[in-house]
Amino acid sequence: LAVAANDCDGRAPAIIRAAWPDAQPAGDEITIEGRRVSLSDSDPHRVFCRRWPAHPQLLLAAVPMIRPEGTAQEYDRQGDLEVLVLDADSLAPQARLRIEGHILEDALSLTGLHFDTAPYRLFGDRLAFGIRRELATASGPNPYRQTDLTLFDLQGDRLRTVLLDQIVTQ
Predict the structure, then answer these.
(1) CA 82, 85, 88, 92: dihedral to nearest 10 degrees?
(2) Which of 4, 56, 77, 138 could join 105 via S-S bond, C-beta 3.0 to 4.6 A?
């Protein structure tokens, strides 16, 4: 399993500016399209990155975009996840995909998001990468934890999901 720590190395503000040129990070937060984006490493909703070992010239970045409090009707917290494939040196976006509503928290809370760069072979030489989403309850008498996996396929300048939250690994 190739799950690693956050490889943004302090470049999250530059990644945000590369993907959203008008965005201006302020401290540990930024607002993009009316959604809150965290730059704090201690926040489970933070921007996170991973260099893709199968393609070391590429940096994978994911940007959780949390909707303002009070905008969700049924959930305590809702948001989208923007997945970016960037040139590792220049941070120029090569491909991107937004998964709307990927962050839904009510009884289950998001406790972590991580890239999984194990060599998921699609066919031939084409490999997918994944994002693991960790969810848990805060219930003492009925604790519950779940980790699911979404796989992504990069085809030139297009990124698409292969599996969306269909593999529960824990």
Answers:
(1) -80
(2) 77
